[in-house]
């Protein structure tokens, strides 16, 4: 988890011990700074801001315990490991009480013990930093939700602006993938919503949601969706490492949350996770039509899948589907409002035309805008949302 090239500061008045520790840790890939006493160590610490500190307790000028007190007073969260030959229990207890990450006793017969302690302390420091970031993000999401609710009540126009601000950047490039979307509300506010974001270094998540109804009440649910997915991501990361994160789990979570809210609204959704390294897509369907359309090598076809709408049934379950993604492809997700733009008397007739239109459009969002004439739309009976994920599309 931590940076393998972290900078360490060793403070010890024993030249032999200090040099041996430094040599071992440098061989382990760390950048190592040295100081011969506590006062010099403080000066180096304030100047270089190392990621971790290793210090002795018995040192001239400023001893180890006083050093820990002064560094703690600076308000920093730098982990400190005490390596002391004193072996006095009261010193160990006091060092740990003052905030030391670990207390090791000289002589260290196996320096791998020190390396393990260093790596563990760095991992904990990184975890604290990430948890603080996630708490800040969650607080920001809560503040955004409160502001959004107030604005929706005060002014439809301001409400729409807030909703648009919650949408992700378009287009968005990440690890060779491009995400692009467009939402066209039938009223001033939309009940359709899209989002995409990085889960970790290998996984990217996305979803398209279509809330039942229109206007402010449906737009309010899209705000809740943003909040729920943000909170779920934060809660899942609280352990420090994001566990296996399945789209079906997200649909179950949102289904339960909407039922508990008792707002009388349900959502049809498509959620997916792309494993960039494995080049796979795992997705789950929550009562949504039309199904996603995969375009590759000039051909377009629907993905398979089915499931109940989200927020209607207590015991609803959802299934994950996994496919391998081609080197060059686009995946198009659409809300059912798009079907109103297609000729035909039945749903089957309308859906049959979509893959052909996507093929003709080259699988791109710009091509779909032209194919559906989105720039010339008048008043629409339903919201329309389009989300296109693509890679290496010519």
Give a quick rundown of the structure.
With 394 residues, this protein is α+β, with helices and mostly antiparallel strands. It has helices at 15-27, 38-48, 64-73, 89-97, 111-154, 156-166, 215-236, 247-261, 347-360, 365-372; strands at 7-11, 31-35, 52-55, 80-84, 102-105, 172-174, 177-184, 192-198, 203-211, 267-275, 280-286, 293-296, 299-302, 320-324, 329-334, 384-391. The longest helix is centred in the middle third of the chain and has 44 residues, at 111-154.
Descriptive notes:
With 394 residues, this protein is α+β, with helices and mostly antiparallel strands. It folds into two domains: 7-126, Response regulator (Rossmann fold), CATH 3.40.50.2300; 158-391, PPM-type phosphatase domain (Phosphatase 2c, domain 1), CATH 3.60.40. The protein is 40% helix and 24% strand. The chain contains ten helices and 16 strands. It has a six-stranded antiparallel β-sheet with strand order 6-7-16-15-12-13, with helices on one face. Helix 3 (64-73) links the parallel strand 3 and strand 4. Helix 2 (38-48) runs parallel beside helix 3 (64-73) and helix 7 crosses helix 8.
């Amino acid at each position: 988890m931590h940076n393998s090239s972290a900078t360490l500061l060793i403070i010890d008045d024993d030249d032999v011990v200090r040099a041996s520790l430094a040599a071992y840790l440098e061989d382990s890939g760390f950048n190592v700074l040295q100081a011969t006493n506590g006062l010099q160590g403080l000066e180096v610490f304030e100047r270089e801001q190392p990621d971790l500190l290793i210090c002795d307790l018995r040192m001239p000028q400023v001893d180890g315990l006083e050093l820990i007190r002064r560094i703690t007073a600076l308000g920093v969260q730098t982990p400190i490991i005490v390596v002391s030959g004193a072996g006095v229990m009261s010193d160990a207890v006091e060092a740990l009480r003052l905030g030391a990450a670990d207390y090791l006793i000289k002589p260290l017969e196996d320096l791998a013990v020190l390396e393990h302690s260093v790596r563990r302390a760095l991992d904990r420091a990184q975890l604290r930093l990430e948890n603080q970031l996630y708490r800040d993000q969650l607080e920001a999401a809560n503040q955004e939700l409160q502001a959004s609710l107030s604005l929706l009540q005060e002014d439809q126009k301001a409400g729409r602006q807030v909703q648009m601000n919650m949408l992700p950047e378009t287009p968005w490039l990440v690890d060779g993938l491009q995400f692009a979307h467009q939402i066209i509300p039938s009223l001033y506010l939309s009940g359709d919503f899209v989002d995409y974001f990085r889960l970790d270094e290998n996984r990217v998540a996305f979803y398209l949601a279509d809330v039942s109804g229109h206007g402010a009440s449906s737009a309010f649910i899209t705000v809740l969706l943003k909040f729920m997915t943000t909170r779920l991501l934060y809660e899942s990361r609280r352990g420090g490492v994001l566990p296996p994160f399945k789209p079906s789990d997200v649909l179950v979570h949102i289904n339960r949350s909407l039922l508990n809210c008792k707002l009388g609204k349900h959502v049809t959704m498509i959620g997916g996770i792309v494993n960039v390294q494995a080049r796979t897509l795992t997705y789950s369907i929550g009562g949504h039509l039309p199904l996603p359309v995969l375009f590759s090598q000039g051909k377009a076809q629907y993905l398979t899948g089915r499931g109940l709408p989200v927020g209607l049934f207590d015991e609803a379950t959802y299934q994950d589907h996994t496919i391998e993604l081609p080197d060059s492809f686009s995946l198009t997700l659409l809300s059912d409002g798009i079907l109103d733009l297609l000729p035909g008397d039945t749903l089957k007739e309308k859906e049959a035309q979509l893959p052909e239109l996507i093929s003709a459009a080259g699988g791109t969002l710009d091509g779909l805008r032209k194919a559906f004439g989105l720039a010339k739309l008048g008043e629409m009976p339903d919201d329309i949302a389009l989300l296109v994920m693509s890679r290496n599309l010519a």
